[in-house]
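USER: Note each token:
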Amino acid sequence: MPEEARRIRITGLVQGVGFRPNVWRLAQVCGVSGTVRNDSAGVLVEAWGDASALITFQQQLLTDAPPLARIDALQTSELDSPRPHDDFRIIASESGETHTGVAPDAAMCPACRADIFDPHNRRHRYPFTNCTHCGPRFSIVRGIPYDRANTSMAGFGLCPACRVEYADPTDRRFHAQPNACPACGPTLWLEDMAGHAILTTAAERDCIDAASRLLRSGRILALMGLGGVHLACDASNEAAVAELRRRKRRHQKPLAMMARDLDVIQQYCHLSEAETAVLQSKHAPIMLLEKKAQTTPALAESIAPRQRTLGFMLPYTPLHALLLADWESPLVMTSANLSEEPQCINVEETRQRMQGIADCLLLHNRPIANRVDDSVVRVIAGKPRLLRRARGYAPDPIHLPAGFADAPPLLAMGGELKNTFALVRDGQAILSQHLGDLEDARTWKEYGHTLQLYQQLFN
């Protein structure tokens, strides 16, 4: 059968999600040679092979995509050039006018969870473990294409072992831009409100164990996470919750909680299959769940006064999973801010703004480029409904009805309260993460920064 050549253009959420190594793998299986690269429009494949191999290859690109990818379109055209080499290669990214997407942050995958709890793994108890199937994306991105140099991981050079993973198309960490390990990646530390290190005891393995000890003693912890800083305390400690409310000036509004696993959540709330699926999804939002009649009245009333529901989420980063590993009860996990102000996102801001609110700080040196609050979801009539669209969902575009493809680029500014904005382009609405109430000066400043970022990322 004579050889044919095809140029295959793939658009959607196809960068930073392991798409190129997946294309490379499928090319090996189908016996196709050529190249794949990221560019400003998405992913571009140039492939040579016999007609049946190319047809199979194209079909598998659509049906066998990586877990975090979303293909919006796959277009092919004939390629009139000779085969450049006999193998299939991943080549350098190319820049230009941006038409690709930026993947949302994704909850820790099972393989990375296994790594951090395996005493023989070099990432044992490493709180910044990730791969192409999970971890930070939007919260660390500063530009397009989504390469390490355009993220807040640019300042962390890869050690030899991580570099081997990063360069190996068969490894699940191939071109995982936040890839790191204890030898070369971000670090975590625990300090008091005067900036002094809090030492671990002889029985504690690291500062995560020390933070857990302080939480059990009723302390309020400011914890720097994925898209911002949380305030945490023992949800079963009524005095600690009351003190957190007093300091945060959040006197009546419900507080979100994080639980180690579904078994802990089921002690307090009813869980349907649909709710379980959303909790365990890559989005890992706060789920509003109907509380059980036997739920401890003191906990229910201190966490969510006069409410029928409680807001729960599961650990979505290695840090959260390690902190909650030994907890049979939930932790309050609410944004680190005074009521109506935006969440803290950097070390110095947290040290300053959390004075008089937190008792201790669990901080790290991986910069948060973009503040992304936790999303909130409720299942209504059997379907998940987004009440607050942020981490895990933004900035994933929303496809608009027929006719919008020809609309000019639009900006929808959103309202003053609970603000988001949207960019409309290419038949899609690119909706920002939840930003908050614009009457607050810090939120207004964040609004301007985020709008500028989206205009840059999406051209």
